[in-house]
Amino acid sequence: MTMPAATDSAAEILQRNITALNNRDLETYLSNQHPDVTITLPGGAQVHGRDQVRASTQVMFAAFPDGKLQFGEQVLADDAAATEVVFTGTHTGPLATPAGEVPPTGRAVRTTTVSMLRFRDGMILTERVIGDELELARQLGLSTPNA
């Protein structure tokens, strides 16, 4: 497990994050999150602290066990970044949502989100994920194309 350093660049922090997620290395992923981390998800739901981040991440791992992330365009600064994130995966496990559990659909999805991040002490302090929830619902067959 690579421990964050206060001098790590935005690119290093982001790469450590995506590598840990793609490897399902939850402990390394969590060590890359500041203890006071806040992640705002599409739709406005927020998770605070490493325990809530762990629970939220485990939900995605369970729903999309083959899920993979890759970066698109990025803008990097010393203490902040904006990055496109492309997610691909197959919905083969239950997906817990605020509206209830979505049973596995077996459908493959490909979504693109944008994350706006702030860093402190070589870790992610805040992340705001901007994405199209309706597009994901359409790909899962939960919404009609014209809805």
Low-confidence stretches: none
Largest sheet: 6 strands, mixed
> What is the CATH third-level topology name?
Nuclear Transport Factor 2, Chain: A
Overall helicity: 25-40%
* Order of helical and strand elements: HHEEHEEEEEEH
CATH architecture: Roll
- Give, in spatial order, the strands making up the sheet with the most strands: 2-1-8-7-4-3
Number of strands: 8
How much is the average pLDDT?
93
Strand content: 35-45%
Question: Given the C-alpha coordinates, what overall shape results?
Answer: globular
Radius of gyration: 15 Å
The chain-level structural class is alpha+beta
CATH class: Alpha Beta
Number of domains: 1
Give the count of helical stretches. 4
Measure the end-to-end span.
44 Å
Question: How do the helices and strands line up, and which of them pair or pack?
Answer:
Layout: H1 10-22, H2 26-31, E1 33-40, E2 46-48, H3 49-63, E3 68-76, E4 80-90, E5 95-97, E6 100-102, E7 108-120, E8 123-130, H4 133-139
Parallel strand pairs: 1-8
Antiparallel strand pairs: 1-2, 3-4, 4-7, 5-6, 7-8
